[in-house]
Amino acid sequence: MRHGFPPTRPGMVIGLLGGSFDPAHAGHAHITREALKRLDLDRVWWLVSPGNPLKARGPVSLDRRMARARAVMQDPRVAVTDVEARLGTRHTARTIAALQNRLPGVRLVWLMGADNMAQVHLWRDWTEIFARVPVAVLARPDQRGPARHSPAAERLRRAYVPVWAARGLGRRDPPAWTFLDMPMHDASSTRIRRAGGWD
Fold first, then answer.
1. Separation of alpha carbons 196 and 46, rounded Å
2. Which residue, 41, 77, 95, 168, has most beta carbons within 10 Å?
3. What residue ranges of the chain have pLDDT lower than 50?
């Protein structure tokens, strides 16, 4: 990993899954493998964030979260990174812009849960995210409602890509986004913390 960035080559399609991963768990690994398969991605990078600007409580140390994430996600197609800490970015739009500047010829896809789609309109410069990269929303079949009717979904309705065309999402020009329904693993970072298995 040169200078903290996994190796790339022009033409690759890389999914970006950001979050605090506090802690990473089998559910994160499950949705990552599903995204690799359903979107025909070459790689996925986990972007373990220094901290979530929308959360008042800070996570445990970055080193500890990185170590846990690497133990949970053992797949040669997936890189666990501290890219945001290395770039000095805290907001998704800035992170994506910085990566695009450093990775010419590489196509990026932002991966996020349906819970994030429901409130992405609260993120700083959220429209820039959709203007820069295609977005795949990973959703439980019974939890799409709030995300599908969110302010972001309503505003970007014309950019929606039906699931039958989702495999080519990474090669589409933005804005383009889709829902991927999938059975979700029932692991939860919040439940792990509340059970005293992490803090």
1. 24
2. 41
3. 1-2, 189, 193
According to DSSP, the β-strands at 13-19 and 43-48 are parallel
pLDDT digits (tens, 9 = 90+) for 28-43: 999 999 999 999 999 9
Cβ(4)–Cβ(86) below 8 Å: yes
Whether 131 maps to a domain, the answer reads yes
Assess contact for 121 and 25: CB atoms under 8 A: no
Domain assignment present for 2: no
- Give the whole-angstrom CA distance, residue 121 versus residue 73: 29
CATH, residue 87: 3.40.50.620
Instruction: Count the domains in the chain.
Output: 1
**Which range marks the domain in which residue 154 is found?**
13-194
**DSSP result, the chain:** -BTTB----TT-EEEEEEE--TT--HHHHHHHHHHHHHHT-SEEEEEE-S--TT-SSPPS-HHHHHHHHHHH---TTEEEE-HHHHHT--SHHHHHHHHHHHSTT-EEEEEEEHHHHHHGGGSTTHHHHHHHS-EEEEE-TTS-HHHHTSHHHHHTGGGB--GGGGGGGGGSPSS-EEEEE-PPP---HHHHHHTTS--
**Residue 106 in tokens:** 């590489």
Q: Is residue 141 part of a domain?
A: yes
